[in-house]
Amino acid sequence: MMAALMSSLTSVFNSASTLFTCDLWQKIRKNASERELMLVGRIFILFMVAVSIAWVPIVQVSANGQLFDYIQSITSYLGPPIMVVFVMGIFWPRLNEPGAFWSLMGGLAVGLTRMIMDFVYSSPLCGQDEYRPEILYKVHYLYFAMILATITAIVAVVVSLLTPAIPKEKLVRLTWYTRHSVEPRMEMDQLNGANEQEPQSDEPVVTMFTNKAVTGDDGEVIHQDDAEETSPKTAADPEEKHTWYRRAFDLFCGLDKSQQGTAETVRPTFFSIEEKPVPRNIVNFMGLLMLCTMTFLFGYYA
What stretches pass through the bilayer (predicted)? Predict the structure, then answer.
């Protein structure tokens, strides 16, 4: 239990620190150094630890102190919009950025409203009259998750149909139906009409796909060790001797000598999604077996 809890906490703290440092702090400090980013990330993790400790009394009050029910209720309030947008983005090519954004914002607003109401209106004690709004005690949080997912899907569909669609050239190998396409893909950051303003080069676009499932030609799957970047070697700077507390600070921030130099631009390598029949069938069978087992357990213990 402790090992599972620690792994979950470290994953959440690391993800939250990465989101804050990369998506928020770099917007405020665009020229921040690597040392500053690492320090901000570590400080934000300490802040998250303090918030999690201060949140313990709220967990004890909510859901009658039952941690599992509390976790499932919070997931039901905040998780469905993300799931709906992710699934729709894979299987419905018409979904665009405004539809995804406003459906997430709408679902988040509805979910936060229900969550705040749960915090404000605590469950009455045994023998007391019910004073909470009907949506709190008549609509279980799992049923509310289904309602929230439906609202999110409706908002995504309506907003996407009222706004321009994403060009098909930008969706190659990004949806379920185009995952095996071999056509070149236009990057998302290229605005509509940018090709008319910028001169185009006659050089072919190298995608580094060598597998038949992607290019249509016979070849081998690219492994990570097969594509090594060749860049001019720079002369190593003379090593600077730091004090012991400076080295301890660098160790705490996750900085080593290899990271303190100039970062080299690494060209991304694209991998094939072709699967061999035997491992694919085994994985599909085990996934289906796990799904059936979990469905049986939910129904049996319900």
Answer: 37-58, 70-92, 99-121, 141-163, 282-301
